[in-house]
Amino acid sequence: MELAVVLAIMAILASVAIPSWKEFSARQRRDSLASQLTAHMALARSAAISRGRPVALSTRGTGWHSGWRVHLELHRNGRWDANEPILAEHEGDPQAQMVGNGAMSRYLIFDADGRPAQNNGGFLAGSMEVCIPSQQGVTMLVMSATGRVRQEQRQSGCSR
């Protein structure tokens, strides 16, 4: 009888804890991914300033969730070419959704002054949404005109 009561209590506690654990785990995964992308943006900006030449972040596949590369940008085309040295790479997370607006949906280029630029040399600023589609909460990466990035937490779901 006592064993049945203990098992019933354990089952109740597990049913309460599992959804909270899934939410916590998804939030940690989302925040970790956003922090890693923010760190690589800072690396690209810093490398552009220290090397005195453009450095880019570009997607490795169909989108940021497929991973990204930080590389020297020799051709100003917003993508990695085989002769461009890679400074850092990240595998991404296929279960995450990472969507940038405008040119930020495909690439980020930092010019020699560390300012974000489009591949045609025009000004680039914008934001990127990082989320896990099955969970609430979004981390927005907002890039200023100087190339610095700040994170904003939002309680909404993925917008797309």
From TrEMBL:
UniProt topology in membrane: Single-pass membrane protein
Compartments, record wording: Cell inner membrane
Family: Belongs to the GSP H family.
Keywords: Cell inner membrane, Cell membrane, Membrane, Methylation, Transmembrane, Transmembrane helix
Name this protein carries in UniProt: Type II secretion system protein H
Gene3D superfamilies (UniProt xref): minor pseudopilin epsh domain (3.55.40.10)
Pfam families recorded: GspH (PF12019)
Residue ranges of every copy of the General secretion pathway GspH domain listed in the record: 34-147
